Amino acid sequence: MTPGDHQVMGEMSDEHIRAVVAETLAEQQRLHHSDIDAVVLRTIATILISFGIEEQDRRELRADFQHLRRWRKSVEQAQSYTFKAVITVIVTGFVGAVWLGVKVMLGK
């Protein structure tokens, strides 16, 4: 074995070591993320339980939120229609008053 052969094997060994270290770090990060996910899920479950919302209640809670959203949107839509109706009544009253004023002025 010549010194040049030893240097090539050393470089391959360094590359292999780097690959193993990179893979190990990536695996450690994946495990770390899964630990974080588990902690977050446990925390959320604990908070919901503290509010009196059990695991079985989640479907009902979701349905309640969907109903609440539909109710909010319908109220917003009704407010929009009410606002348009009020503006229409005000404009119609103003135009009617102007028309009556013009009619009175022409009648004199």
Compact description:
This protein has 108 residues and is an all-alpha fold. The chain has helices at 3-50, 58-107.
Structure description:
- With 108 residues, the protein is an all-alpha fold.
- Helix content is 91%, strand content 0%.
- The chain contains two helices and no strands.
- It has helices spanning 3-50, 58-107.
- The longest helix has 50 residues, at 58-107.
Tell the overall outline: elongated
Mean pLDDT: 83
Rg, please?
37 Å
Number of strands: 0
SSE run: HH
- Portion of residues in beta strands equals under 5%
Instruction: List low-pLDDT spans.
Output: 4-10
Distance separating the two termini:
125 Å
Largest sheet: none
Can you lay out the helices and strands and say which pair or pack?
Blueprint lengths: L2 H48 L7 H50 L1
What characteristics describe this protein?
108 residues, mainly alpha, 2 helices, elongated
